[in-house]
Write a structure and sequence with these properties.
Layout (H helix, E strand, L loop, with lengths): L28 H20 L13 H8 L6 H8 L3 H21 L3 H16 L14 H14 L6 H15 L8 H34 L26 E2 L9 E2 L24 E3 L2 E5 L8 E6 L5 E7 L2 E6 L10 E3 L4 E3 L6 E3 L5 E4 L11 E3 L5 E3 L1
Length: 385
């Protein structure tokens, strides 16, 4: 008779293989470590190579991101009263932490501690940057929390530097004559102390190296990001006009207009409801996006481009404008917030100006949204150009 968890006659402890008969092999943690490690390394290096991330005068500054994500979240008080005044320090901690955690998880070094720090970081992001994502399971940070929890509970598996460190410490204790029953507790405490000091030391070095590395990497770019980016219209008509006001005459086409980017965006208003998708129709050989009055002032309408990409039509004081509704940071779908007159990404809080060519108002995005060419006829119908 085979002993195991499915055999009622099996008694735990009677056979050494009983506890292992249904155990999950340690190597199954390798794909999880690879995914988490590479993801965090990529996120950390993305911030490290961003010349605006630690520049207080730039729109992509971590302080601007904290100010944008904080209102209305469970961590609002902490973020505005403590993190925002120390935004540069928190930026270094976030950037360096992501790099250090990603590298440690890939190597299997201080794995449980690293997983706990990753869990704390993603939990913080869930309670701030992605708190407004609806429904909640569309947010990226909450799944990461449970992935880190799984790694923290299960450990790194067999292919990890933690095993070599543990073996080295155990061998050293045996050689020193400390592996006696009466001293097992002290030996374990010594191992924990060593690992704790090692983790703290590596963390401090990594944070210092990260801040110094960013400063050296972007020393030449400091002047280039000293102020908010400005945009000028080309002398020839753009390929993708973005702000189209309804024509006053019967010419059947709108006239491109532009407005300067607002100096500051108010952050106290609640987000608007999600717009419904626009029906598609063909009129006079053109793709109709919206008929007269379908999109009232300070409203938006989602529609799909012929390529299948999601797009959003915005109607505000600048007229009509349309953009590919995909954030240029991590590819999440953006939506229009009428109270703030911004297109906002729910994943990391990036904001774009629909009245000024989709320019970035707040990072972490660096590039403006892709504009969609539209025309507006004399009756107020909006078509793809």
């Amino acid at each position: 008779m085979v002993r195991g968890i499915n055999n009622p006659a099996a008694t735990p402890g009677n056979n050494q293989n009983d506890s292992n008969s249904s155990a999950i092999p340690g190597w199954v943690m390798l794909p999880l470590r690879l995914f988490l490690g590479v993801s965090f390394l990529a996120a950390g290096f993305d911030k490290l190579t961003d010349p605006t991330f630690l520049d207080p005068s730039a729109r992509g500054y971590i302080g601007q991101q904290i100010a944008g994500m904080a209102p209305g979240t469970p961590l609002e008080g902490f973020l505005l009263n403590f993190a925002l005044p120390n935004a540069t320090m928190f930026g270094v901690l976030t950037m360096g932490g992501e790099i250090l955690i990603g590298l440690a998880v890939l190597l299997g070094l201080f794995t449980r501690f690293s997983a706990a720090m990753g869990l704390l970081l993603n939990l913080t992001f869930f309670l701030s940057a992605t708190w407004e994502v609806r429904p909640f399971y569309f947010g990226a940070d909450l799944p990461y929390v449970f992935l880190w929890l799984t790694l923290m509970l299960a450990g790194p598996g067999p292919f990890a530097l933690d095993i070599l460190v543990k073996r080295w410490l155990t061998d050293g204790e045996i050689r020193a004559g400390k592996a006696q029953p009466a001293l097992e507790g002290n030996a374990a405490l010594t191992r924990r102390a060593f690992l704790g000091v090692g983790a703290a030391g590596l963390t401090a070095v990594a944070m210092a190296a990260t801040g110094l590395g960013w400063s050296l990497l972007h020393a030449r770019n400091a002047g280039a990001v000293a102020g908010p980016p400005t945009t000028t219209r080309p002398t020839t008509p753009p390929l993708l006009p973005t702000a189209i006001a309804p024509a006053e005459s019967g010419t059947g086409a709108g006239e491109a207009t532009s407005t300067p980017a607002p100096a500051e965006v108010q952050l106290t208003a609640a987000p608007t409801e999600q717009p419904t998708a626009a029906p598609t129709a063909v009129a006079d050989g053109r793709l109709l996006i919206a008929g007269p009055g379908d999109v009232p002032m300070n409203n938006s309408l989602n529609f799909d481009l012929p390529t299948g990409e999601p797009a959003v039509l915005v109607h505000n004081d600048a007229g009509y404008s349309a953009y590919v509704a995909i954030c240029t940071h991590e590819g999440c779908d953006v939506s229009y917030n009428a109270a703030r007159n911004v297109l906002r990404c729910p994943c990391h809080g990036a904001q774009f100006d629909p009245s000024n060519n989709g320019e970035v108002l707040r990072g972490p995005a660096r590039r403006p949204l892709s504009a969609v060419a539209i025309t507006v006829d004399a009756n107020g119908s909006v078509y793809l150009a």
